[in-house]
Write a structure and sequence with these properties.
The chain has helices at about 5-20, 60-75, 105, 120-130, 160-165, 180-200, 225-235, 240-260, 295-305, 325-330, 350-360, 375-380, and strands spanning about 40-45, 80-90, 135-140, 145, 170, 175, 205, 215, 220, 265-270, 310, 340, 345, 370. With about 375 residues, the chain is α/β, with parallel strands linked by helices.
Length: about 375
């Protein structure tokens, strides 16, 4: 056997062993929540722009369902146990909603339901539970539309850009919600409440998109035009402090609301993995999460405004953004004894991924890993999954 084949076989075997559940296969009915081991072994499935699922708009109901169950089969075969499924990519819905339109990633037309009809979120919950998997509903709170000037589908009348246009800010190619407008917070919280109330989800997940990442257009830095809401609601606070307060208010209110409605639902947040450049000492970063995104992620963890804190540690061990250094620092900030689950970047070579998982397991204060994303597994990048 060639060295390549030996290494490939070893990696596939090792990955399976890494996520092997010694308690055996978990059998559940469609209405039961899986009883999971302590370790969180998650993977993200993104729907925005048809990144991962559905693979393209306009697939038949049968094809969409087949794609998803195939993904779930692979996830279960790898002994992962949590699916982070994006069900609200851009103020739209991969589930039946009276608050927001059907997502165009399903049919190609915003506001059009699948035909034959089915509810993708309900279907996902049932299929995940059949395989002993938790289903966490992944919501992007503040993205309103991607590449809106080139979008093929017309905007549905139920979309927030049509219902409450004063909540919308154009930023580069995208539309975003204005976190400083109270109507934005009211709407997003109502959407999350609706999901939590009506669906048998195991978790509610929000990602790293708050105020937008810095971008340039024609070599000029883009500006977030929230001057109207700042003038009306800023209360003489400095701009960046006011913006951080807007996001802090949303995160705290969202967490309190979900835990009041259904205390068993696990609330998780996966922010950019570095709080500020130079923190901890020696860490380099081109993005200042605290100042650029106005996301005081350290405060959220310090205050305990989530159950699972999943920093996106998408860097190699030993790099200028050293994986272990960042992981240890986040653990040191866990004042409320929440679950620390680092996010891992699956586009690295397989040995790096194995090393990061093993390092995480050897580090006290961690409770598993969450893998970004399902794509390297289904496309077998770097022979990650055969």
């Amino acid at each position: 056997m060639s060295r390549f084949k030996k290494n490939l076989t070893l990696f596939i075997t090792t990955l399976g062993l890494l996520f092997f559940n010694a308690s055996g296969e978990q059998k559940t009915t469609k209405n039961q929540h899986p009883v999971l081991p302590k370790e969180f072994r998650g993977v993200w499935i993104a729907s925005v722009s048809n990144l991962h699922w559905p693979s393209k708009p306009g697939l038949s109901t049968h094809a969409q369902q087949k794609e998803l169950t195939d993904l779930f089969d692979k996830i279960a075969a790898l002994n992962l146990n949590v699916v982070m499924l994006q069900i609200r990519p851009a103020c739209d819905a991969l589930y039946h909603s009276t608050l927001e339109p059907w997502s165009e990633v399903l049919t190609g037309t915003m506001g059009k339901s699948p035909d034959p009809y089915y509810d993708p979120l309900e279907f996902s919950i049932t299929q995940a539970h059949k395989r002993g998997l938790e289903l966490h509903a992944w919501v992007n709170p503040l993205r309103a539309r991607v590449n809106y000037k080139k979008a093929k589908s017309p905007v549905d009348s139920l979309h927030i850009s049509q219902k409450i246009p004063e909540c919308i800010i154009a930023y580069g190619k995208n539309l975003i919600l204005d976190p400083g407008n109270p109507k934005t917070q009211h709407h997003v919280l109502a959407v999350i409440k609706d999901i939590v109330t009506r669906y048998n989800i195991d978790g509610l997940h929000i990602d790293d998109y708050f105020y937008p990442y810095p971008e340039k257009e024609n070599n000029q830095n883009l500006v977030i035009d929230d001057s109207k809401s700042y003038k009306q609601y800023g209360h003489k606070l400095p701009l960046k402090e006011w913006r951080r307060n807007n996001i802090n208010t949303f995160v705290k209110t969202m967490y309190t609301m979900v835990k009041t409605l259904k205390p068993h639902i696990k609330v998780s947040i996966s922010p950019f993995g570095i709080w500020r450049p130079g923190v901890p000492t020696g860490i380099k970063a081109g993005i200042d999460c605290y100042n650029d995104l106005c996301a005081d992620t350290k405060k959220w963890l310090n205050e305990g405004w989530c159950d699972y804190f999943i920093p996106q540690l998408y860097w190699r061990i030993g790099s200028p953004q050293d994986y272990k250094t960042l992981l240890d620092w986040w653990i040191s900030q866990n004042k409320k004894n929440k679950y620390i689950v680092p996010g891992n970047y699956l586009y690295f070579n397989p040995q790096e991924i194995i090393d990061q998982i093993n390092l995480t397991r050897a580090t006290p204060g961690t409770f598993g890993n969450c893998l970004y994303s399902i794509e390297p597994l289904i496309k077998n990048k770097n022979n990650l999954y055969n």
